[in-house]
């Protein structure tokens, strides 16, 4: 059975690593663009010597494409960049946390790319945004048990006959076939 689900209606907020980030729902066209982008990068780079490493690279490329397109904003102060004491920050907004200075990053394509280039942040965004979509898709694509009862999930196999009872000592076997008693012939 195919189960249709209503598509997400609009952007939503996710709290990731203490900041509120706005994401667009992942759609089929968005997924297709991400796959094309990842496959074009994979074919130009050539296949890796290790298939699992190659698949990881392609999976990360799909996630990066989905995150790049899906992340459409963040709340003020959700993203910041550490700055040194002697660094010139111009007119950028600076906050101090535990004696360290941070420059607030406004939402922009450059700052989005900067955030997603950090492996820890990428993994956190991937886990919060892409992984739930993948798990929903995987759950939808699991074949359902057969409604006619043939599937092993619908009707588990049962033994048709009871297992043979262990023979008790001294028990006689039942007669079969000829019921006449056999007598010995004397010669």
UniProtKB/TrEMBL annotation:
Location of the region described as Disordered in the Swiss-Prot/TrEMBL record: 142-187
Membrane as UniProt keyword: yes
Biased composition (Low complexity): 155-169
Positions of transmembrane segments: 12-31
Compositional bias ranges of the Basic residues kind: 170-187
Name of the protein described by the UniProt record: Uncharacterized protein
Keyword entries, A-Z: Membrane, Transmembrane, Transmembrane helix
Domain of life of the organism encoding this protein: Bacteria
């Amino acid at each position: 059975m195919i189960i249709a689900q209503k598509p997400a209606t609009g952007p939503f907020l996710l709290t990731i690593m203490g900041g509120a980030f706005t994401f667009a729902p992942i759609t089929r066209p968005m997924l297709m663009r991400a796959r094309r982008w990842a496959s074009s990068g994979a074919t130009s780079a050539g296949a890796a010597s290790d298939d699992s490493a190659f698949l990881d690279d392609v999976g990360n490329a799909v996630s990066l494409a989905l995150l790049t397109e899906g992340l459409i904003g963040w709340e003020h102060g959700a993203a910041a960049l550490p700055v040194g004491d002697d660094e010139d920050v111009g007119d950028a907004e600076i906050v101090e946390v535990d004696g360290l200075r941070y420059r607030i990053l406004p939402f922009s394509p450059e700052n989005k790319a900067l955030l997603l280039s950090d492996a820890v942040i990428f993994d956190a965004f991937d886990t919060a945004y892409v992984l739930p979509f993948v798990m929903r898709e995987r759950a939808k694509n699991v074949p359902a048990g057969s409604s006619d009862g043939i599937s092993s999930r619908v009707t588990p196999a049962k033994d048709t006959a009871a297992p043979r009872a262990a023979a008790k000592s001294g028990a006689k076997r039942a007669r079969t076939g000829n019921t006449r008693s056999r007598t010995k012939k004397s010669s």
